[in-house]
Design brief:
- Strands 2-1-3-4 form a four-stranded mixed beta sheet, covered by helices on one side.
- The protein has two domains: 76 residues, Glutaredoxin (3-Layer(aba) Sandwich), CATH 3.40.30.10; 115 residues, Glutathione S-transferase Yfyf (Class Pi), Chain A, domain 2, CATH 1.20.1050.
- The protein is globular and about 50 Å long.
- The chain has 222 residues and is α+β, with helices and mostly antiparallel strands.
- 45% of the residues lie in helices and 9% in strands.
Length: 222
Protein backbone atom coordinates (compact mmCIF):
# COMPACT_ATOMS: atom_id res chain seq x y z
CA UNK A 1 0.00 0.00 0.00
CA UNK A 2 1.13 3.56 -0.70
CA UNK A 3 2.13 5.53 2.40
CA UNK A 4 1.81 9.32 2.38
CA UNK A 5 3.74 11.30 4.95
CA UNK A 6 1.67 14.45 5.27
CA UNK A 7 2.57 17.65 7.08
CA UNK A 8 -0.48 19.65 8.07
CA UNK A 9 -0.94 22.92 6.19
CA UNK A 10 1.46 22.02 3.41
CA UNK A 11 1.73 21.03 -0.23
CA UNK A 12 1.48 17.37 0.74
CA UNK A 13 -2.29 17.72 0.65
CA UNK A 14 -1.94 17.62 -3.15
CA UNK A 15 -0.95 13.97 -2.92
CA UNK A 16 -3.80 13.12 -0.57
CA UNK A 17 -6.19 14.76 -3.04
CA UNK A 18 -4.69 12.98 -6.05
CA UNK A 19 -5.06 9.59 -4.37
CA UNK A 20 -8.64 10.38 -3.36
CA UNK A 21 -9.51 11.38 -6.93
CA UNK A 22 -7.95 8.17 -8.26
CA UNK A 23 -9.67 6.13 -5.52
CA UNK A 24 -6.39 4.44 -4.64
CA UNK A 25 -5.84 2.87 -1.22
CA UNK A 26 -3.23 4.60 0.92
CA UNK A 27 -2.06 5.00 4.47
CA UNK A 28 -1.83 8.56 5.75
CA UNK A 29 0.76 9.49 8.36
CA UNK A 30 0.19 12.99 9.66
CA UNK A 31 2.78 15.31 11.18
CA UNK A 32 2.20 18.57 13.06
CA UNK A 33 4.20 21.74 12.56
CA UNK A 34 6.30 23.05 15.43
CA UNK A 35 4.04 25.59 17.20
CA UNK A 36 6.88 28.11 17.51
CA UNK A 37 8.92 27.80 14.32
CA UNK A 38 6.11 26.40 12.11
CA UNK A 39 8.70 24.05 10.61
CA UNK A 40 8.19 20.33 10.10
CA UNK A 41 9.05 18.12 13.09
CA UNK A 42 12.49 16.46 13.15
CA UNK A 43 11.01 12.97 12.88
CA UNK A 44 10.29 13.60 9.20
CA UNK A 45 14.06 13.47 8.62
CA UNK A 46 13.93 9.78 9.43
CA UNK A 47 11.70 9.39 6.36
CA UNK A 48 13.59 11.70 3.97
CA UNK A 49 16.86 13.58 4.59
CA UNK A 50 15.34 17.01 3.91
CA UNK A 51 12.67 16.49 6.58
CA UNK A 52 9.90 18.05 4.51
CA UNK A 53 6.61 16.81 3.12
CA UNK A 54 5.17 15.24 1.10
CA UNK A 55 7.00 11.95 1.09
CA UNK A 56 5.53 8.94 -0.67
CA UNK A 57 6.63 5.41 0.21
CA UNK A 58 5.83 2.64 -2.24
CA UNK A 59 7.51 -0.46 -0.85
CA UNK A 60 11.25 0.23 -1.18
CA UNK A 61 10.72 3.52 -3.07
CA UNK A 62 10.89 6.74 -1.04
CA UNK A 63 10.06 9.86 -3.03
CA UNK A 64 9.74 13.55 -2.15
CA UNK A 65 8.56 16.62 -4.15
CA UNK A 66 4.83 16.92 -4.77
CA UNK A 67 5.17 17.26 -8.55
CA UNK A 68 7.44 14.24 -8.85
CA UNK A 69 5.16 12.19 -6.62
CA UNK A 70 2.10 13.17 -8.65
CA UNK A 71 3.80 12.16 -11.90
CA UNK A 72 4.92 8.87 -10.35
CA UNK A 73 1.44 8.00 -9.09
CA UNK A 74 -0.18 8.92 -12.40
CA UNK A 75 2.34 6.92 -14.43
CA UNK A 76 2.24 3.80 -12.29
CA UNK A 77 -1.30 3.75 -10.94
CA UNK A 78 -3.38 6.30 -12.83
CA UNK A 79 -4.28 4.19 -15.86
CA UNK A 80 -4.63 7.36 -17.89
CA UNK A 81 -6.87 9.13 -15.41
CA UNK A 82 -6.32 12.83 -14.56
CA UNK A 83 -3.58 13.10 -17.17
CA UNK A 84 -3.62 14.12 -20.83
CA UNK A 85 -2.20 11.80 -23.52
CA UNK A 86 0.88 13.10 -25.31
CA UNK A 87 -1.02 12.86 -28.60
CA UNK A 88 -3.77 15.20 -27.38
CA UNK A 89 -3.85 18.85 -28.51
CA UNK A 90 -4.28 19.73 -24.82
CA UNK A 91 -1.08 17.97 -23.74
CA UNK A 92 1.16 21.09 -23.93
CA UNK A 93 -1.28 23.04 -21.74
CA UNK A 94 -1.47 20.18 -19.26
CA UNK A 95 2.31 19.90 -19.07
CA UNK A 96 2.85 23.64 -18.78
CA UNK A 97 0.40 24.30 -15.95
CA UNK A 98 1.35 21.13 -14.08
CA UNK A 99 4.93 22.40 -13.79
CA UNK A 100 4.19 26.14 -13.71
CA UNK A 101 2.50 25.73 -10.32
CA UNK A 102 5.74 25.15 -8.42
CA UNK A 103 8.41 26.26 -10.86
CA UNK A 104 7.01 29.77 -11.43
CA UNK A 105 3.91 30.65 -9.41
CA UNK A 106 4.92 29.25 -6.02
CA UNK A 107 8.42 30.65 -6.48
CA UNK A 108 7.04 34.15 -7.11
CA UNK A 109 4.65 33.93 -4.16
CA UNK A 110 7.48 32.72 -1.94
CA UNK A 111 9.71 35.62 -2.94
CA UNK A 112 6.94 38.12 -2.13
CA UNK A 113 6.20 36.43 1.18
CA UNK A 114 9.81 36.31 2.37
CA UNK A 115 10.53 39.86 1.21
CA UNK A 116 7.46 41.19 3.03
CA UNK A 117 8.45 39.43 6.26
CA UNK A 118 12.05 40.66 6.00
CA UNK A 119 11.07 44.26 5.25
CA UNK A 120 8.39 44.52 7.93
CA UNK A 121 4.78 45.65 7.81
CA UNK A 122 5.50 49.39 7.64
CA UNK A 123 8.38 49.20 5.19
CA UNK A 124 8.62 51.71 2.36
CA UNK A 125 11.10 49.56 0.46
CA UNK A 126 10.76 50.07 -3.32
CA UNK A 127 11.39 46.34 -3.73
CA UNK A 128 7.96 45.33 -2.40
CA UNK A 129 5.85 47.14 -5.05
CA UNK A 130 8.15 45.80 -7.76
CA UNK A 131 7.72 42.24 -6.52
CA UNK A 132 3.97 42.74 -6.20
CA UNK A 133 3.80 43.96 -9.79
CA UNK A 134 5.60 40.81 -10.91
CA UNK A 135 3.22 38.62 -8.91
CA UNK A 136 0.24 40.41 -10.44
CA UNK A 137 1.55 39.50 -13.89
CA UNK A 138 1.41 35.85 -12.88
CA UNK A 139 -2.09 36.19 -11.45
CA UNK A 140 -3.30 37.86 -14.64
CA UNK A 141 -1.78 35.03 -16.66
CA UNK A 142 -3.77 32.52 -14.60
CA UNK A 143 -6.93 34.63 -14.79
CA UNK A 144 -6.64 34.89 -18.57
CA UNK A 145 -6.15 31.15 -18.94
CA UNK A 146 -9.27 30.41 -16.91
CA UNK A 147 -11.26 32.90 -18.98
CA UNK A 148 -10.73 30.59 -21.96
CA UNK A 149 -11.33 27.19 -20.36
CA UNK A 150 -12.86 25.87 -17.14
CA UNK A 151 -9.72 23.95 -16.18
CA UNK A 152 -6.04 24.44 -16.88
CA UNK A 153 -5.71 21.67 -19.45
CA UNK A 154 -9.00 22.51 -21.13
CA UNK A 155 -12.54 21.28 -20.57
CA UNK A 156 -11.66 18.45 -18.17
CA UNK A 157 -10.29 18.43 -14.64
CA UNK A 158 -6.74 17.02 -14.49
CA UNK A 159 -3.77 16.73 -12.17
CA UNK A 160 -2.68 20.16 -13.42
CA UNK A 161 -5.59 21.60 -11.44
CA UNK A 162 -4.48 19.69 -8.36
CA UNK A 163 -1.00 21.16 -8.69
CA UNK A 164 -2.34 24.69 -9.26
CA UNK A 165 -4.69 24.71 -6.29
CA UNK A 166 -2.26 25.13 -3.38
CA UNK A 167 -1.12 28.72 -4.17
CA UNK A 168 -4.76 29.88 -4.04
CA UNK A 169 -5.82 27.64 -1.16
CA UNK A 170 -3.75 26.55 1.79
CA UNK A 171 -0.87 28.90 0.96
CA UNK A 172 -3.10 31.69 2.28
CA UNK A 173 -2.23 30.50 5.77
CA UNK A 174 1.22 31.97 5.10
CA UNK A 175 0.71 34.62 2.42
CA UNK A 176 -2.62 35.70 0.97
CA UNK A 177 -2.10 36.84 -2.58
CA UNK A 178 -5.63 38.30 -2.80
CA UNK A 179 -8.13 37.57 -5.53
CA UNK A 180 -9.88 40.89 -5.98
CA UNK A 181 -10.91 41.31 -9.61
CA UNK A 182 -10.06 37.68 -10.37
CA UNK A 183 -13.52 36.22 -11.07
CA UNK A 184 -12.28 33.36 -13.24
CA UNK A 185 -9.90 32.09 -10.58
CA UNK A 186 -12.71 32.29 -8.02
CA UNK A 187 -15.07 30.38 -10.30
CA UNK A 188 -12.43 27.69 -10.84
CA UNK A 189 -11.94 27.35 -7.09
CA UNK A 190 -15.69 26.96 -6.63
CA UNK A 191 -15.84 24.22 -9.28
CA UNK A 192 -13.03 22.35 -7.57
CA UNK A 193 -14.62 22.77 -4.16
CA UNK A 194 -17.65 20.77 -5.29
CA UNK A 195 -15.61 17.67 -6.14
CA UNK A 196 -16.11 14.81 -3.64
CA UNK A 197 -12.45 13.81 -3.99
CA UNK A 198 -11.38 17.31 -3.01
CA UNK A 199 -13.73 17.41 -0.04
CA UNK A 200 -12.57 14.02 1.24
CA UNK A 201 -8.93 14.99 0.79
CA UNK A 202 -9.21 18.30 2.62
CA UNK A 203 -10.88 16.56 5.54
CA UNK A 204 -8.17 13.93 5.62
CA UNK A 205 -5.50 16.64 5.37
CA UNK A 206 -6.87 18.28 8.50
CA UNK A 207 -9.00 21.17 7.24
CA UNK A 208 -12.30 21.88 8.95
CA UNK A 209 -13.32 24.27 6.17
CA UNK A 210 -12.39 24.71 2.55
CA UNK A 211 -8.99 26.48 2.60
CA UNK A 212 -9.59 28.21 -0.73
CA UNK A 213 -13.02 29.76 -0.31
CA UNK A 214 -12.79 32.34 2.46
CA UNK A 215 -12.79 35.21 -0.05
CA UNK A 216 -16.47 35.94 0.49
CA UNK A 217 -18.28 32.79 -0.55
CA UNK A 218 -20.11 30.99 2.22
CA UNK A 219 -19.51 27.30 1.80
CA UNK A 220 -19.71 26.14 5.40
CA UNK A 221 -17.72 23.39 7.04
CA UNK A 222 -16.94 20.19 5.25
Amino acid sequence: MLIVHHLKVSQSERIVWLLEELDLPYELRVYQRDPVTQFAPPELRSVHPLGSAPVLCDREIVMAESGAIAEYVLARYGNGRLAVPVTSPQYPDYLYWFHYANASLMMQIGVNWIAAMAAGQDSDSPLLPTLRERLDLHLQLVEDRLSRSPYFAGSEFTAADIMMHFPFGTMKAFYNIGLDNRPNIKAWLARISDRPGYQHAMKAAGHEQDPALDWGATRGAF
